[in-house]
Amino acid sequence: MVRHVAAGIDGSPESLAAAHWAAREAVRRGSPLLLVHAWQWRPHPSVPGSAGVSPQDWAERALARTAAGVRTAHPGLEVEERLVAEDPVTVLLSVADGAEAVVLGSRGLSAAAGFLVGSVSQRVVARSPRPVVIVRAGVGAASEHLPVVDGVSPEEIPEVPYRDVVLGLDVGAAGDEHVPPDELVGFAFEAAHLRGAPLRVVHAFGGDGADRTGAPPGAGAEPLAEHARAVVAALHPWREKWPRITVAETVTEDRAADELVRAAAGAGLVVVGRRDRGSGGGGHIGPVTHAVLHHVACPVAVVPYG
């Protein structure tokens, strides 16, 4: 079965950015694109002309405008539009079942305050059975590529190399039984492969208290070396599967959230995991993933595993 890439639309600038990011991802994957508008979402105040229009009429117009823009940008892409008069979280979670990924928008606040991930996006991230990608308003095709050099026209931007993909990886020290989930590592390697981009893997095991070896942060070089060996071992089968991907590892005793936010500067995509507690456990976003969603400017993919 060919899975689609889905994007949630609500008429906001950030959902427009999400729709176009999803379209580019669908093209990279050779997948169809599904644009979904659950019209119980309220029209975004930045959208002109929404006053005095019924929610359904407004939603139909917003969806049609977005789809038209995507089709213009990607003439060969198969685009399906879906307008649903139901709770948006329920709709998006249903759509996620058949998706390669669900792409949603998020609003920027300020450099100091970070980014606002709305309640709908947070609930979808916390409960989705499939990867969810959060895209900021203003992220465009050029944002995914390295800076354009003088003399390169905008039409040539797709030929400019992609920015790095960054993977946040949690492993124990060498000899531990903790194995990183295939869903998470596989998504990151595939993302790098689709872009022809380098993959930077970040493993930070510092924090409040001890790391997995029981040693406090700063206790010496041996815990760092043990963790570095564990990362190399965890990545070995993936390097064999994707031998053409350039992979670089960073292993540090710093806090994971801080190190991932630093590593994300200049990246094109950050990939983090979320343990799926199952339908009976409710949705949960861990503190590291929450910090990355709040402070990283580039698109962030949250991959469920468990």
From TrEMBL:
Top-level taxon of the source organism: Bacteria
Domain (UspA): residue spans on this chain: 1-136, 176-304
User: Which SUPFAM superfamilies does this chain map to?
Assistant: Adenine nucleotide alpha hydrolases-like
InterPro entries reported for this sequence = Rossmann-like_a/b/a_fold, Universal_stress_UspA, UspA
Q: Which family does it belong to?
A: Belongs to the universal stress protein A family.
Protein name, UniProt field: UspA domain-containing protein
Q: Which organism is it from?
A: Streptomyces ruber
